[in-house]
Design brief:
The chain contains 15 helices and 31 strands. The chain folds into three domains: 267 residues, Rossmann fold, CATH 3.40.50.300; 99 residues, P-loop containing nucleotide triphosphate hydrolases (Rossmann fold); 141 residues, Peptide chain release factor 3, domain III (Alpha-Beta Plaits, 2-Layer Sandwich), CATH 3.30.70.3280. The longest helix has 17 residues. Helix 7 crosses helix 8 and helix 11 packs across helix 12. Strand 29 and strand 30 form a beta hairpin. A seven-stranded mixed sheet has the order 2-3-1-4-5-11-6, sandwiched between helices. Strands 18-17-23-14-15-22 form a six-stranded antiparallel sheet. It has 536 residues and is an alpha+beta fold. It binds guanosine-5',3'-tetraphosphate. The site of guanosine-5',3'-tetraphosphate has 19 residues, from helix 2. Guanosine-5',3'-tetraphosphate binds next to helix 2.
Amino acid sequence: MEELETQLKKRLTFAIISHPDSGKTTITEKLLLFGGAIHIAGAVKSGKNTKASVSDFMEMEKERGISISTSVMGFEYGGRKINLLDTPGHADFSEDTYRGLSAVDSALLVIDSVKGVEDRTRKLCEVCRMRHTPIATFMNKLDREGKDPMELLDETERELRIGVRPVTWPIGQGRSFKGVYNLVEKSLYLFFPGEVQRPSDIVKIESLEDPLLDEKVGSTLADKLREDVALLNGVYPPFSPADYLAGTATPVFFGSALNNFGVRELLDTLTLMAPHPTPKTSEERLVHPGEEKFSGFIFKIHANMNPKHRDRVAFMRVCSGSFERNKTYHHVRSGKPFRTANPTAFMAQDSEIVDLAWPGDIVGIHDTGTFKIGDTVTEGESINFKGIPSFAPQIFRYIVNADPTKEKQYHKGLDQLAEEGVVQIFSKPHQSNVRVLGVVGQLQLEVLQYRMEHEYNAKCNYKPIDLTIAHWITSDDKKALEAFVDEHSRRILIDIRGTHIFMSDSPWYFERIKGANPAIRFYATSEMVEERSASA
Ligand code: G4P
């Protein structure tokens, strides 16, 4: 137990969330450099695939398949064992990103100061908000002429609906960028483009009236800083770690990842205040990380891209107790015992077999088809972790088998790829042989066809469907739900858990139906359905 407490206090598991091109790869690399996990710049591959062709994507996945350890990067820093989860860069695979967020205890939001809050940032923050995940924010690329910092704060607060608390504040911007002022420490961090930061670049000043400030940054920028800080103090309450931990306010840092400016301070702050492994919600009860008995859940399954090896890697987040190699556990969904001789831990870009893993750690398990995303593993208790939501796909198609002689391969491929989370598959009421496919991005349709053909020797075709907007539905009134499903049966789909989904073709139509059916609750993710019905 004592060992568990010690290990818990060390763990820090987080993910970086950002819109592509904001600088996630660059920051990841700097963090790993500080952690001593890598020694040269350029060692971290960007997960993005800007060309978005299916062959490029498959190539990229192959590389990732060989070196899957890049999905989780572990390193030690400041007395803590840090697990940084990679989230796929490609917009079409955002669903995987959302699931990754269920396995972390906090997030680092990176915003490009030139572009401000962008599309994917909004969606990712929504997921964090749903779970009250603490978020720290890094405004990147201050070496470029970007948006006004006040405007950036305002935009973040307004668009991401989270309180902002600047911890550092930029002095100048773009070509005139001189560094940042740390509002908590009351020190100046001076910036010299392209140079490694020296200890003498950090200057403690007594107050903003200190003439040293004018000497270091020039009187025009010094005056501007005085003005800005007075304004900030009037508008924003001081930073409180409790608000950060509750997920209601985000500390904001400014810097330039490319110039390695501001990243170390960010990491130091995270090391001090980012949460230890947090309790995780199961359908049955709240599970505390300090509980002696082991529990964990599968949040990602990564296929081996070599068709000759059908094995996959299941990524498991340890939630409580410790996970031991060769010990027999309980796979809750099947009720069967489960044991592994080679659980893998991820350190930097390597993976190694581990004997023991602790809450907050991510363990890779070679899997030949036992696991589905969302599965819980315990020492015997039947609990089911929540927080692995399915998100409403944005593209729907009927899927049909294009080669009737390969019926068996077709169904096997479809089932396995759905389990892996490549696509979501739905059925229709009273039409048992009709399957509808839902994906978040167009590319997934091509990937599915490619993988069906190359891995399962099956061919599939798609047919258009005229319904595009999906909402999971539930009701406290069973009869009302049944009547609704009957009345709108043409627009109803059923997901793998048996939950109904209402499909509409325009936001206007959806709002009308919603308004006319107050007994029915509509949700954008499957998780919301579960949350509400569990507490109802
Ligand atoms: P991502 O993983 O979030 O997609 O972003 P990534 O780190 O790949 O960065 C996107 C682009 O932004 C890269 O340029 C990168 O060099 C640049 N960048 C990152 N941080 C900063 C910064 O602080 N200042 C400036 N000026 N640029 C920054 P690229 O031209 O797309 O790629 P590359 O050729 O430099 O690798």
